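Figure S7 source data.
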Amino acid sequence: MPRAEDLVFPRQRERFEDRRKEGHQRKLLDEFFDHGTLLTVSRLINRGLIDSVDFPVSTGKEGGVFRASKGGEFRAVKIYRVGNTTFRRLPAHALEELRRESSVRNFGGLIYAWTRREHTILGRLHDANVRAPIPFGHLRNVLVMEFVGNADGAAPRLQDAAVDDLDALYRELVTQIGRMVRDAHLVHGDLSPYNVLWYRDQAVLIDVAQSVDWRHPAAPELLRRDITNFAKYLTRLGREVEPAEFLRAVGGDEVGPPAEVD
Ligand SMILES: Nc1ncnc2c1ncn2[C@@H]1O[C@H](COP(=O)(O)OP(=O)(O)O)[C@@H](O)[C@H]1O
Ligand SMILES: [Mg+2]
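C-alpha cells for the predicted magnesium ion complex:
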C-alpha cells in the first residue's frame, strides 16, 4: 500500500515549515486520499498519466481539484469524494440520465460513472472545438485533464477575474457556449462565473458532468437558466445584455426535443 505522503504533495512536503500547516495538510490527505483513492492515484501514476499530485487548487464537499505534474507539464486531477454528499447537489435530470446510461446501483459505482461522464463530455467538447480542459484519462473517482493555468497557478474563475473588455467577454461567451450548443449538441446546465475560467482572453468551460444532450426535454429550460444567469452577471458588470438576444445568439432556438411529425 503506497503511503499518502509518498504520492501526493511532494512539493508541498519540502515546504512544511511549521506544525500547523502540516496538520492542515494531514487533514486534507486523510479526507481525500482514502485507501481506494490512493490506490487509484498510484495506478494513474503507473499508467503514466501523471507523475505526482502537487497541491490542492480547490477543495469542497463533493471533491477537489489538484494540480499535478507530468514530465515538464502540469495537469489537473479532479477527485470526486466517494460518499453521498457528492450526489446531494445533483439535479434530478442528471441522475436520471446517469441511471439510464449505467446499470450501477451503489454510490461508488454511480460516482465512477459520473467521473466517466465528465471525461466523455470533455471529449465531446474538445472534438467540437469548445474551449474546455482536454481530458487525458479517468479511473474510478479520479479524472485527469488539462491544467488551465501556468507556473503561477490556476487560471481565475470568471467570478474572480479582472476583465476589462466586456464586449470581448460577451462575444467570447457567445462563441464558446454557441459551439457547445450547435457543434457539441450539449447544454451545460450549471453555467455561472464560477464554472468558467478566464485564461488568455478565453472563456474555458469547466465542471461539465451535469451537461445534457440538446434534445433532452430539460435542455431548453436549463439553457435559458444558464443564459439568464450570465446576462445578469454581464449587466451587473456594466455590459447590458438581453437574455433573449443572448439565447438566440448561442442557438437557443434549436434546442429541445425534436418536433413531432404527423
Ligand atoms: N482543469 C482545470 N485547471 C485549473 N483549475 C481548475 C480546473 N478544473 C477545475 N479547476 C478549479 O477547481 C475548481 C473546482 O472545479 P469544478 O470542476 O468547478 O468542481 P466543483 O465545483 O464540482 O468543485 C474550479 O472553480 C477551478 O478553480
Ligand atoms: Mg464548479
